[in-house]
Amino acid sequence: MPPRTSHPGHALLTLLTLLLIGLAPVAFGLLVMAWQVNKQLDESAVLALRDARLGVDSLLDSLHGASNKVLNLAEYACDKALPALHSEVVGNPQLRSLTLVRENRAYCSTLRGESGLLVDPGDYFNHRLRLEAGNDNTPDSAILYYRLQEYPYGVLAVADGEILQRVLRGTRLPESVKLQFGPTLIGALGEVEDSLEALSSEPDMSQVSPMYGYTLHILHPPGHAVRQLLDNSLVVVPSLLLVGIMTAAGSYWAMYRRRRGMRRAM
């Protein structure tokens, strides 16, 4: 019988084969994990947008209902209409103030009483919504205007931005949900930003309210998806490595037995 000779090339090929066999379940598991993480992010975004839209629509429904209820008061002088306006504001916790408008002039407000401020419909998104960072009364608190118009009469209903903040904070992704009313945008912390600057990067997901036309965006912080992948990897990778090692070991044992059987046959 000729003496056995070692084959370094064969040993290297065996090592590479075992390495590939061991890495295969690890790579496949990571791909599945990445797919699941992306799917979970999309599902969370869809639910966050839905919850935010329901909350904002509910607020605007309340403002519309209150405005419609007092619209007929715009036919009267301010001293006659003001008591009913105050009663409506007191009875609706989502209202901050009501203002009657006649021929695009705000002539009667629950905050200022009689006035004559000009109301420009062009200042309102879709001619009925306007978000501001604040006003003279509360310069550091966002406010939302809802405008109802049946010319020559109209109503301006005002709500605190804090209500919008609570809606956004109550979603699954409070740090990522942004609410846009035309040129302005608000987040869960109450910051009012210019929408062009805030949306300089493409939102991860957006949804337009079919009822009121505002837009909700999901804007994840930079690196959010990567952090989610890393967090999941810390849990999954040890198990995947164990599976890979066991798979490689099982393959090596099968190759060893096969080679041993061939040597015996020779």
From TrEMBL:
Which domain of life does the protein's organism represent?
Bacteria
Q: What is this protein called?
A: Putative cyclic diguanylate phosphodiesterase CSS motif-containing domain-containing protein
Q: Which organism is it from?
A: Pseudomonas putida (Arthrobacter siderocapsulatus)
Q: Where is the Putative cyclic diguanylate phosphodiesterase CSS motif-containing domain?
A: 49-223
For this UniProt record, give its keywords in alphabetical order, as a comma-separated list: Membrane, Transmembrane, Transmembrane helix
Write one Pfam family the protein is assigned to.
CSS-motif
List all membrane-crossing ranges: 234-256
Which InterPro entries would you find in this protein's record? CSS-motif_dom (IPR024744)
